Amino acid sequence: MKFFFIVLFFSSFSYGAGGDLSCGSIECDDFSANTSDLASLQSGLTTYMNNCYGCHSLKYSRYNRIAKDLKIPLEIYQENLIFDGSKPGELMNISLNEKDAIEWIGAKPPDLTLEARIRKPAWIYTYLRKYYPDSSRPYGVNNEVYQNVSMPNVLEDMQANLSTAEFDKVIYDLTNFLVYVADPSANTRKRIGVYVLLFLLLFTSFAYLTYREFKKELK
Q1: How confident is the model at residue 219 (pLDDT cuts 50, 70, 90)?
Q2: Which of 69-73, 92-96, 211-215 is predicted least confidently?
């Protein structure tokens, strides 16, 4: 009986782990974020603000924090990427309210600040690249990752005008930006963590040498 429950537990765990690796009915494409790549993050920010921000807020982020982290001069950020007159220190809310969203598109689009933590980055990367024509759907498209999706393919025109490699790079940069937005302090934590480990290594070395000296005197 005990053996049965052990087998059942590990079978359930293995099933859950396998499910985490999939994107709906397909496997997720490979994706490895690099939030130290400022050029990629800046490109992703530009794509997001020009194509996604009209419907999807980043309400836990501030314009000036992103500008600072991505090394974008605040004046350039304000002039080119703030379209509604918001102040740089404000949270990145959008003007679309829930009532209008439901009336116009049937549902309120979700905020995407934490999307890369709610879902895996590989899921986002795959989802954005797996739209396909489907005349039965309201917007004429469907998605291999999220069947019967209600969101249109807002990057359809861009995809039509770029090569596959170029479009994949756009989606990589956009996903990379969402990974950064979901945890903007990650790089700082990693950098501090390296300093802490070096300090502990140095401290341990001095502590060991001190211990050896005391041990000599005890003899």
Answers
A1: low
A2: 211-215
- Residues shown for the chain: 219
Instruction: Identify whether the C-beta of residue 152 lies closer than 8 Å to the C-beta of residue 55.
Output: no
Q: CA torsion sign, 34 to 38 to 42 to 45?
A: positive
Residue 199 banded pLDDT, cuts 50, 70, 90: confident
How close are the terminal C-alpha atoms of the chain, in Å?
A: 60
Amino acid identity at 101: A
For residues 25 and 130, give the distance between their C-alpha atoms in angstroms, rounded to a whole number.
12
Judge residue 177's burial from the number of C-beta atoms within 10 Å of its C-beta, 0-12 exposed, 13-18 middle, 19 or more buried: buried
* H-helix segments, the chain: 2-20, 38-51, 63-69, 74-81, 98-105, 115-118, 121-129, 156-161, 164-182, 186-218
The candidate with the shortest Cα–Cα distance to 50, out of 8, 81, 87, is 81
Residue 27 sits at φ, ψ, to 5 deg, of: -80, 145
Q: What is the pLDDT of residues 83-133, one digit of tens each?
A: 988 999 999 999 998 999 988 888 899 999 999 999 999 999 999 999 999
pTM of the entire predicted model: 0.81
CATH 1.10.760.10 assigned to domain 33-184? The reply is yes
d(C-alpha 78, C-alpha 83), whole Å: 8
Q: Are strands 58-62 and 26-27 parallel, antiparallel or unpaired?
A: unpaired
Would you say 49 and 72 are in contact if contact means Cβ atoms under 8 Å apart?
no
